[in-house]
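Aim 2, interim progress. The first record below pairs a target sequence with its structure tokens.
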Amino acid sequence: MKKLKPILACITTLLMVNACTFTYNKPYSRHLSGNWQIRTLNGEPTPDMSAHIRFDPKTQQYFAYFGCNQLSGTYRDIHHTLHLSRPSGINKLCANIEDERTGTGTLGFVESWRIINDNFGVRLQLLDKSNYVRVEARLLQETENKKK
């Protein structure tokens, strides 16, 4: 019985540490949720004002549009570290296909994100490993979301 108490105490401690670690690694994906109008790519204004990206925390999928094809992929978000899969979609040729190639290529550099809430509204910044803002987007209001 004397040996059983320290073993149970040790197991309880390990379970508590494991539970804390699991809580600490909880994804922050709900903050990404919504439809975001892409304003800049690599510091340059987007040529197509209808360009947008949407993150769905329930399915862990993202959907992007850069003016030509509707693209989608999966993502993982842990502690603001973002892993985007390569986007896929129908590859129809459009007049502005280069804008789309720039957009999809830019997503390949994204490694983290941050939300900024200031006088300009709620903005999402997708950053590369050097913390350079690769994509900046503005959160669309519900009425604007319904138009998309």
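The second target in this work package is listed in the same format:
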Amino acid sequence: MKVRSQDPTHATYFIPEDWDLSEALDRLPAAFADARPEVARNLKRIEQAKKDSGGKIDHALDVVAVLVLETDDPDGVYDEVLHLLHQVRTARTTEAAPATAA
């Protein structure tokens, strides 16, 4: 992980494609957690979710973590992900429903 900016209130990070969330959390400067406590707290929650899921949804959680880092808006990211998942579920339910005869 490379820090693009040293300003802790507006830090930008370059995260390699094959990154590991726990490793990234260890490499984030302490100033990051001080400046963006909600984001840091949510990244730790995502890391715990990865451990709890047994690797089943690691990629999805990594995507969520990157979005949280990029947007600095964990609640907005979660709302959007839940909205998208609801759309997918609704589409699948609609596709699976048998056609009714008129």
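The beta strands are 2-3, 13-14. This observation will shape the mutagenesis plan for the next reporting period.
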